[in-house]
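Posting this for the archive.
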Amino acid sequence: MKVTGQILIIEDEASLRKTLARILQQAGFEVTTAESAEQGLDYLKTTKFDLVFTDLRLPGIAGLDALKYIHKINPALPVVLFTAQPDINSAVEALRRGATDYLLKPLKPEIILERAKTILLNQQKEKRKREIANEIENLQAELKQLENGEENESPNLPETKAKDRFIKHGKLVLDLHTRRVSIKDEIINLPPTSFDYLLVLARHAPDVVDFQTLVAEAQGAQAEMREAQELTKWHIHQIRQAIENDPRNPNRLITVRGTGYRLVTD
């Protein structure tokens, strides 16, 4: 599958901004650049983007505030941050607030391309899966009506099959279409990336999912053990706040010390 997409780069350093744009354009992506968060937000209001790369430290609107405004415009838009080593704590805080990933400066061209291709490929696959599922549902509905001798009537679109749309573990239900979580029919909202982490845990439940697998499957990124552990714990914190009766004494999302986490059904 050819990976394509519209990418926005927000970076105040002109040479880096131009280099990143050239690298991504040569790989076949459509790229728009902005020298400030304000300019980037203006572009986001008028143009549909598939991915945003942005520096964590920007003049004017700071990176964490920019992330909030970006997701206010488009809650599901993947955002990858650039950061220098001293900004690691801020980067992890940004991940807790829904950023997709962070990259350490100096940026390597191959890492930029790998992140862009992985994130956009996952988007395209999910979109195509939904399209195929809808096509199958339409054909099944039409076939059923033909069998019932109702070929002259317009087929009604059936509801998506629960087994395809929902993942259920006891009282916990994940809706893959609306990307929402519910417990005992109570809707719980999670940041997009934290939802992806919970989805990975749910698909593997009740098995243990190690830190690196969690990061790879939830964010499409490769990380060293320590980095993966640091990235994961913030999303686990978000999930526990949402699904546990007592987040300090979790009984649904269990820590397996030194390894990872596992989701336990009720």
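Residues 151-160 have pLDDT under 50 and may be disordered. Residues 6-122 form a domain with the Rossmann fold fold (CATH 3.40.50.2300).
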